[in-house]
Amino acid sequence: MKLKDFFEIDAAECIEPSLFDHIDDYYSSSFLALSAGDARLLVDENEMPLAVAWRCDSGWVISSYLYRNITYDIIGKFEGCAGEIYQERRDDYESALREYYCGKITGEYPEVSEDNREGRYEMVTALFKDTIGVCKGQSAIDFCCGSGVVSKALLSSGYLPLSMDNDPYLLSVGLHKGRLNPKKTLCIDASVSAYFCPESDVGTGLMLGDITGFNSDLWQGIVAQMLMLTGKTLITVATEKESMLIRKWCENAGRTPEIFENENDPIYDRWVCFC
């Protein structure tokens, strides 16, 4: 289903320019300021608000409340419009919301060049066999997924990956090449992933870095999110020095990491941290 289908309308645009913007209360105020000739409210299976749509002069506009709280003022404005209420599963709407923004990304970058180097998929799959293993239906989060090579390897290993990156061009490559599922892909900064992602069985963060003295705080925050959200965590970096930083951050979080050199990939996934 497309977003418009949940409200039984012909077409609609989200007031939030990107998925990342859904955690910003500014867009609740902007939505409230719009004139509304009609209104529709979408609730989930537990009757919690998911989204509201206003019919404005320019057409239908949607504001969603999966990642921030709806305000009493917006509920009051909806009631004043005597609008209709619709009900759908939260997971279905969330998938459609991700797909909506992925459509914007592929529309912005309709032509892309392949960035995947030959043999990388096979090397990642082999690394999985030595670490997280194969499974049937366990949840996973692919942090800093790039163009989706690792996400594809997770799926082929039996996992159900949710993929994220803050680079829309790389995501567009993965979406165009079919490695990323638009219903399971998010263009967000991994440092705020806890707003958007549920806890998962496995987390991957391959080819992290470069980690330097200037940006180590940023990467430490991302690794902290990974460790908080995932039961088993697999991280790779290019240098031993970076792996020692990862080790320290994992130990500070109460994990016992295994660090080893990956002889199959002497470049990006050379040093492995698994905990």
Tags for this model:
single chain, 275 residues, alpha/beta, Rossmann fold, 2 domains, seven-stranded mixed beta sheet, five-stranded mixed beta sheet, 10 helices, 12 strands, 36% helix, 23% strand, elongated, Methyltransferase type 11, SAM-dependent_MTases_sf
Describe the structure in brief.
This is Methyltransferase type 11. The chain is an alpha/beta fold. The chain is 36% helix and 23% strand.
Please characterize this protein's 3D structure.
InterPro entries: SAM-dependent_MTases_sf. This is Methyltransferase type 11. The protein has 275 residues and is of the alpha/beta class. The protein has two domains: 3-108, no CATH class; 120-274, Rossmann fold. It is 36% helix and 23% strand. The chain has ten helices and twelve strands. The chain has helices at residues 3-7, 26-32, 72-80, 90-108, 120-130, 149-156, 168-177, 193-196, 216-229, 240-252, and strands spanning 12-14, 38-43, 49-56, 59-64, 84-87, 138-142, 159-165, 185-187, 200-205, 230-237, 258-261, 271-274. The strands form two sheets. A seven-stranded mixed β-sheet has the order 8-7-6-9-10-12-11, sandwiched between helices. Strands 1-4-3-2-5 form a five-stranded mixed β-sheet. α7 (168-177) links the parallel β7 (159-165) and β8. α5 crosses α6. The radius of gyration is 20 Å and the shape is elongated. It starts with a helix and ends with a strand. The relative contact order is 0.11. The mean pLDDT is 96.
